[in-house]
Design goal:
The protein is an alpha+beta fold. 32% of the residues lie in helices and 21% in strands. The chain has five helices and four strands, in the order βααββαααβ. A four-stranded antiparallel sheet has the order 2-3-1-4. The two termini are 29 Å apart.
Length: 127
C-alpha cells in the first residue's frame, strides 16, 4: 500500500542515485498496458539483464497519472554516458524502446537516455 512506503534494498557498498522523469501518453488504456509490460511476468528478461550488465544495481519506476519517476542506483564509479551508450546497443534494447515508445511522449526511434530526462536534486535532508 502506498501509505506504508516501499522497502529499499540495502547495498554493501556506497551508491549514487540518478533520478529521471518522463511522461506517458495521457490515455488510461495505454497506461494500463505500459504498467503491465513492466510487471515481473510480462517484462522482457533480456531488458532486465541488460540493465544489470551495464552496472545498474537497482531501478525503480513510480507513476502518478501519466508522469513517471525513475530512481537508478549505481556504484560510485558508474559513468552514466558510457553505460547508456552500451545499453542502447544490447540485444533487443532497440526493439524494447520502439515497443514502449507507443505509450510514451517521445520522438520515434529515441533511446532510453533520450526519453528519460535526468532531474536535478534541489533538496535533501542528509547532514
Amino acid at each position: 500500500m502506498i501509505e506504508e512506503g516501499y522497502k529499499i534494498k540495502g547495498h554493501t557498498e556506497p551508491v549514487k542515485r540518478y533520478c529521471q522523469t518522463m511522461d506517458l501518453k495521457n490515455n488510461p488504456s495505454l497506461i494500463a498496458k505500459y504498467k503491465k509490460c513492466h510487471n515481473r511476468a510480462e517484462s522482457w528478461p533480456e531488458i532486465r539483464a541488460g540493465i544489470r550488465s551495464v552496472g545498474i544495481l537497482e531501478m525503480e519506476i513510480y507513476i502518478l497519472g501519466s508522469r513517471l519517476f525513475m530512481i537508478v542506483e549505481t556504484p560510485l564509479d558508474f559513468n552514466w554516458k558510457t553505460a547508456m551508450e552500451k545499453l542502447s546497443h544490447l540485444p533487443r534494447q532497440e526493439e524494447w524502446e520502439n515497443y514502449v515508445a507507443g505509450f510514451q511522449e517521445c520522438s520515434p526511434g529515441s533511446t532510453s537516455a533520450e526519453k528519460w530526462k535526468l532531474m536535478e536534486r534541489m533538496f535533501y535532508l542528509y547532514e
